[in-house]
Specification:
It is built from eleven helices and eleven strands.
């Protein structure tokens, strides 16, 4: 079994290193990279406006990293007033490390639906909610908080940019290396991978690979695109992906 990991760096490289240390054949093929978000210059002002009982959300590690770098550049620190929330354990750890604040996160799955079940998020009318995220994120969290009466502000802290590849060349390379398992952690990347690979290789190789994804929503998208052998990891972090691959 040869495994192709499409996660962006550094998480993708780290997963490949851990797989190789366990004797697996694994390759890194990052489909996207990151750059600073367009709304970062407004971040310090957004944070200063937050008061006690307001809410601050981080939807990924990258949002935390880019936000923290910008705050350091502006000579600002993370505020003490709001309640801090993260989409999952890895993001919560990153946010706690940079802000020194207690961060609440769902213990179950790293998705907005589960985050929204936290008891603290049931009565949010009149509160301000600042959501730190990348471009083209899902709107479910913001929409639901608005329905519950909160004033929602999004701050795009980073942008995902597609990496450019020659699809036929890459398809030939990975098929000849015997890749039979694909690791894909977002719908955007799944769609990108499907579109990148030319039709002949798609029909004769790509869609025959086992696919490891991180949510039921992604599994459904994969079925629509033509995959049949699909496995869902119990979380989106590398520990969960490793468990699913062993």
């Amino acid at each position: 079994m040869s495994i192709l990991v499409t996660r962006p760096s550094p998480a993708g490289d780290q997963l490949v290193s851990r797989l190789r240390a366990l004797g697996q054949v694994a390759w890194s093929f990052p489909l996207i990279e990151f750059s600073p978000g367009r709304e970062l210059p407004m971040l310090a002002g957004h944070l200063r406006a937050l008061q006690a009982d307001d809410l601050l959300f981080a939807l990924s590690q990258h949002a935390v990293e880019f936000a923290h770098a910008r705050l350091q550049q502006d000579g600002q620190r993370w505020p003490d007033e709001p309640g801090y929330f993260a989409i999952g354990r890895t993001t919560a750890l990153a946010l706690h490390t940079e802000s020194s604040q207690d961060v609440r996160y769902p213990l179950d799955r790293e998705i907005s639906e589960v985050l929204l079940q936290l008891p603290e998020l049931q009565s949010v009318a009149g509160k301000r909610a600042l959501i730190l995220r990348g471009n083209s994120g899902r709107d479910l969290l913001g929409d639901t908080l608005r329905e519950r009466g909160a004033e929602v502000i999004f701050c795009e802290c980073y942008q995902r940019c597609n990496k450019y590849y020659d699809g036929a060349q890459e398809a030939m390379r990975w098929q000849s290396r015997g890749v039979t398992t694909l690791v894909v952690t977002s719908g955007e990347m799944l769609q990108q991978l499907w579109s990148l690979i030319p039709e002949w290789y798609r029909e004769n190789w790509l869609l025959h690979c086992r696919l490891l994804v991180v949510s039921e929503r992604l599994a459904n998208l994969a079925r629509e695109l033509g995959w049949q052998d699909i496995r869902i990891a119990d979380n989106a972090d590398n520990d969960a992906l490793l468990r699913a691959l062993q």
